[in-house]
């Protein structure tokens, strides 16, 4: 049983505070008192880097949230493509031609050129594994004068949206000289990444030659604090100005004026291993689905700060609910003492509690349930290798392109790079491909919902709830971003009073 946050011993909070003391002081550069943002911004981040801050991994979203790495295109609130490093683009069949912005320099002083853009895009397109946004996509880039032409193997209506993914950030040539991609001093954003201390901290300074509006804050000091109680304590004690992803267990004990709750396109899902073990049997997958009480998990674990899932796509995409029709599932069988192992991770403090709740619910349905809970970096490879009967994951559904087709393909296509369910179904593959190929608009939305139905009909995954992110901003923070796509956090407009 979870100890209520308000009953956490004072000695524990004191220890957390002592641990954080010095994380944001003493080691960072001195504050620059010029401009409205004379103070550096101290940020407590949820997850440490998984791949040395390589933009070809999920670490790309850290670079984006710190406004250090940029892409050719960015997305507006509606998910439509808008100019960034590219000012305009046009399509001709399989090819899209992008005109680059003038006067852009990388943080090492070199100029943004078509050749630099081609190098970055080619590195991503030929990486193994590819960035999720390029799952199922063959992409080539070519410099033509002062423009870049991007060509895909088939007509792709989502090329501009794909190029907005932080995993396709454009970096200077210096980033690609080693065996891994190193973003230090290689971005184009208003803040330059100057130092990375492993999985402990990172330092960014204002880049005064930025092509756009100069950053108001002199810099950002980042501390990676996986423990949710510690992040909340850092905000409460004044050790952090911005605390990412405050756990719901801590939200109630913080000053409510300091927290913002944002509905997220993020779904907490139980992925069922369809290739081997108990859940290779469709009837047992159906039995697991029927045994899960998502409402009890929302109320018990998330304290009501989440929405019960009706599908993989949640209220952040309201059109999904409008287009969705009832899904016909297989008939549930009986567990009869089948033993299953559920894996999850500790990086998000709610996940072990969700797994424990699922253990109780599934045991009532006749399953014998074991749990395997570790840090994400230590469990991801086993999950991708299919070593669990089920895996609980909090998954962003439009993280990459602003469009959920890429997420659905990545997670549920037979050749998807993040197929935790080991799901391979010809009809689902057909629906997923159709969703990916349909032009942007109402027809595409309908195809996406049909693809979702094809996955849910086979019980490859059981969506349980849609999360709301809780961000903590100290009283002096001005213009911190509250981005449901988790692409922005500190921008050029963010500063401390």
Question: What does the model show?
Answer:
The chain is α+β, with helices and mostly antiparallel strands and 497 residues long. It folds into three domains: 5-67 and 189-241 and 474-496, D-Maltodextrin-Binding Protein, domain 2, CATH 3.40.190; 73-173, Dipeptide-binding Protein, Domain 1 (Dipeptide-binding Protein, domain 1, Alpha-Beta Complex), CATH 3.90.76; 263-468, Dipeptide-binding Protein, Domain 3 (Dipeptide-binding Protein, domain 3, Roll). It is 26% helix and 23% strand. The chain is built from 14 helices and 19 strands. The strands form four sheets. Strands 1, 8, 9, 10, 11, 12, 13, 14, 15, 16 and 17 form an eleven-stranded mixed β-sheet that branches. A four-stranded antiparallel β-sheet has the order 4-5-7-6, covered by helices on one side. A two-stranded antiparallel sheet has the order 2-3. α10 (350-364) links the parallel β14 and β15. The two termini are 41 Å apart. Residues 1-19 and 26-34 have low confidence and may be disordered. It comes from Streptomyces lomondensis. This is ABC transporter substrate-binding protein. Pfam families: SBP_bac_5.
């Amino acid at each position: 049983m979870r100890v209520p946050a308000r009953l956490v011993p004072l000695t524990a909070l004191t220890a957390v505070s002592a641990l954080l003391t010095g994380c944001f002081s003493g080691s960072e550069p001195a504050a620059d008192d010029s401009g409205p943002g004379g103070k550096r911004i101290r940020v407590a981040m949820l997850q440490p880097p998984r791949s040395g801050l390589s933009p070809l991994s999920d670490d790309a979203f850290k670079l984006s949230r710190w406004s250090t790495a940029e892409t050719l295109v960015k997305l507006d609130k509606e998910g439509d493509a808008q100019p960034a490093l590219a000012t305009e683009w046009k399509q001709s069949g399989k090819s899209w031609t992008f005109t680059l912005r003038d006067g852009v320099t990388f943080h090492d002083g070199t100029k943004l050129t078509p050749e630099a853009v081609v190098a970055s895009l080619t590195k991503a397109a030929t990486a193994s594994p590819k960035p999720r946004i390029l799952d199922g996509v063959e992409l080539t880039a070519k410099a033509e004068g002062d423009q870049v032409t991007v060509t895909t193997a088939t007509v792709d209506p989502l090329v501009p949206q794909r190029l907005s993914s932080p995993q396709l950030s454009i970096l200077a040539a210096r980033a690609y000289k080693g065996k891994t991609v190193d973003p230090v001093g290689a971005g184009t954003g208003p803040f330059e990444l100057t130092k990375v201390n492993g999985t402990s901290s990172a330092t960014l300074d204002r880049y005064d030659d930025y092509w756009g509006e100069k950053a108001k804050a002199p810099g950002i000091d980042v501390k990676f604090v996986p423990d949710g109680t510690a992040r909340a304590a850092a905000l409460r004690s004044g050790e952090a100005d911005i605390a990412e992803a405050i756990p719901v267990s801590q939200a109630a004990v913080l000053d409510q004026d300091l927290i913002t709750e944002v509905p997220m396109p993020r779904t907490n899902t139980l992925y069922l291993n369809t290739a081997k073990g108990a859940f290779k049997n469709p009837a047992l997958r159906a039995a697991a689905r029927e045994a899960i009480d998502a409402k009890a998990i929302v109320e018990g674990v998330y304290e009501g700060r989440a929405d019960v899932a009706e599908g993989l796509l949640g209220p952040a995409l309201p059109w999904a609910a409008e287009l969705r029709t009832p899904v016909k599932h297989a008939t549930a069988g009986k567990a009869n003492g089948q033993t299953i192992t559920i894996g999850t991770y500790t990086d998000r403090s709610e996940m072990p509690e969700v797994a424990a709740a699922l253990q109780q619910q599934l045991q009532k349905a006749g399953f014998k349930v074991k749990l395997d809970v570790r840090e994400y970096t230590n469990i991801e490879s086993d999950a991708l290798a299919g070593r669990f009967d089920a895996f609980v994951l909090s998954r962003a559904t439009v993280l990459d392109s602003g469009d959920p087709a890429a997420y659905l393909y990545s997670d549920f296509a037979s050749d998807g790079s993040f197929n935790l369910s080991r799901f391979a179904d010809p009809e689902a593959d057909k629906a997923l491909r159709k969703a990916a190929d349909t032009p942007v608009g109402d027809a595409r939305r309908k195809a996406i919902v049909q693809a979702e139905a094809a996955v849910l009909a086979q019980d490859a995954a059981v969506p349980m709830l849609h999360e709301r992110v809780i961000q903590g901003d100290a009283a002096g923070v001005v213009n911190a971003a509250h981005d449901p796509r988790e692409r922005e956090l500190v921008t050029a407009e963010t500063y401390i009073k």
